[in-house]
Every structure is written in C-alpha cells, then in structure tokens.
Amino acid sequence: MCRLYSSKTKDRRAHTTRRSSIREGAREEVKMFLKKALLTLGIAAMLCVPRASLAQAGSQAGELKTITVKGINYRFRWAPSGSFFFGYDDPVEIKLFYGFWILETEVTQEMWKSVMNRSNCAFSPSGSKSESVRGMDVDRFPVENVSWNDCQLFATRLNDLGVAPVGYAFSLPTWAQWHYVLYAGQMENWVDPVQSAEANYRGLGLERPCRVGKSRPDRWGLMDMYGNVMELLQDVVGEDLLKSQDLTGPYGLRNSSGVIIAVGGSFDTDGNVTTPVSHSDCFENMGFRLVLVPQDGPGSEEAIRTNVAW
Predict the structure, then answer these.
(1) Is the torsion defined by CA of 144, 147, 149, 152 positive or negative?
(2) Whole-number percent of the chain with pLDDT over 90
(3) Which pTM value belongs to this model?
(4) CB–CB of 195/216 below 8 Å?
(5) Cross-strand bridge partners of residue 67
(6) Does domain 48-309 have CATH number 3.30.930.10?
(7) Measured by CB atoms within 10 angstroms of the end CB, which terminus of the chain is less buried, N or C?
(8) What is the model's pLDDT at position 256?
(9) Are 105 and 182 in contact (CB under 8 A)?
(10) Bigger pLDDT: 260 or 190?
C-alpha cells in the first residue's frame, strides 16, 4: 500500500532530519571535547607536577644547576623522565614519568655543618677516627655517621631556608630515582666501568672516606655513585619486594619493621652492596646525597602512586 505525503509533511520530515543531524554532530563534538579533557586530566594526574616545577625543569640529561647555600655551592644534575630494567633473572621495567635534580656528589661535611651547626662525623678532627684524617682538610669529605632521621632534618632545614627552585623541595632520593641515575639512562642493569674501577671500595686500601668528586663523572655528570660511603634512600624497595604480592605503591614504601636501605657500597665493602638499616642507625661508612623534586613529587603520597610504574 502506498502512502502519500503532503508538502508540509515533507518539510517537517526534512526539518526533523536536519535537527537529528545537528544533534548528532553536537554529540560528536561533546565526545571529542570530553576525550580531550579526560586525556588532559589523565596526563596532569600522571605527572602531578605544578607549572612552577615544570618551568624549573632541565632541558637535557646532565644539565647543571648550582644552588648556593650559606656560601657553599650545591651542584645538581638533571635526570629526565625515562625508564630502566631492574633484576637479572626476570627483569622488570620501571618507568619514571617526570624528571628531577640530583646532587652531583654525596653531601659533604662542610654542607652538613653549615646547616646543622654540628658535626657527627667519625672521620673529622673531633671524631672517633680523627687519627685517620690527621692534618687533612675534611670539609669536602662526605658526611657520615648520620641516620635517616638526621637526613630528614637536614632536608627540612634546607627547605626552610627557601633556597630551592620555585616548586621544588630537597629530599633523599627514592629507590627508583637512585637506581635510575646509577644507570644514567641505560635501560639495562649497567655498571659504569670507569667509576666502579676507581671507586673507593675496600680493595683500594684507603680504609676511610676520601674527598668527594675524585671519580670521573658518568654520562650525566654524577660522581661517587660507587663506593666512598653508602647512601641512604628515602624509601625501601628492593628486588625481593618487586615480586611481593602486597605492594600498594611502586615506591615510597617502607616495610612493617621500619627498615630502610643504604646503597652503593663504601670504603669498607667489596662492592656495590645494599644494606638494611633502621631510621636511627648511624654508621661511619654511611652518608647520603640529595635530590630536588617537585613539591607534589616523589615525597608526596599521590606521587608514590603516580610517578613510577612497572
């Protein structure tokens, strides 16, 4: 059976079709807008970096930033975002979504004394190992015999001085950050043949720390990543924990016993070893270096969830 349409009916149908087309086009525009908005929000959430911090970011790996604190220069090198593989039998790729600044060497005794107004060091004129350094200028020796708690106070006092770049704060390196710069952008478990050969390990025979910066710099300008003194980290994540079933965050993790770790080996170890310590332990072969991280960065709970992934 045929149906006849009047001209009015045809006009009404054409108008309805146009309206449907407009509505469909509008819906597609809204969808595209939402997709772009969600993508932008997702990237922002992943990065968790304020604009002020982005403005202070480096432009290339190893770029130098010098900050003067109480007349003493702190030389930092830029570590860009990237990834590395950790583990030998079943390596895991660990990704850092944004970069950070890391101190070129370990924190020195003169840095420590200028901020803390005291010396804890065993290898100093008033320390228990003073005979080992008699007549030496130990200002450029690494600070040692300090605990993780002491290091937190040091970083806090630096932050209170207001000398950090806008949007950044001083902190100890996380496990992921330290191992990332150890490989200096190499994806695999890579050992710097020059730095490891020149490192102040037990085999060198000094039996004490030496002036920082004596080893040749690596690809990013960092020195003393191997030996001299072990370096305390902000958190604890090791190869055994990578395979743990109860990890709630990729780093920023401390286990139930409150143990953290020191890495890199020292003048009285045979190589790059990892040592578990408590937050209050002090040892004459243990010091630290600093990083500058975005204030919403690795020290924050949100960044613990978002800055690193594997």
Answers:
(1) positive
(2) 46
(3) 0.77
(4) yes
(5) 74
(6) no
(7) N
(8) 43
(9) no
(10) 260
For the chain, list the strands marked E by DSSP. Answer: 64-69, 72-79, 82-86, 92-96, 100-103, 168-171, 230-232, 260-263, 275-277, 286-287, 291-294, 308-309
- Separation of alpha carbons 182 and 211, rounded Å: 20
Stated length of the chain: 310
Q: Which pLDDT belongs to residue 249? A: 34
Measured CA to CA, the distance from residue 270 to residue 194 in angstroms comes to 16
User: How big is the CA angle at 156 (ends 212 and 250), to the nearest 5 degrees?
Assistant: 80
CA angle 135/231/234 to nearest 5° reads 140
Q: Minimum mean pLDDT among 17-21, 28-32, 192-196, 257-261: which range?
A: 28-32
Would you kindly state where each structural domain of the chain is located, as residue ranges? 1-47, 48-309
Tokens for 238, please give them.
């090791």
pLDDT digits 0-9 by tens, 97-140: 889 999 999 999 999 999 999 998 999 999 999 999 999 999 99
Q: Residue holding tokens 């500058």?
A: 292
Short-list 53, 112, 73, 76, CA closest to 296: 53
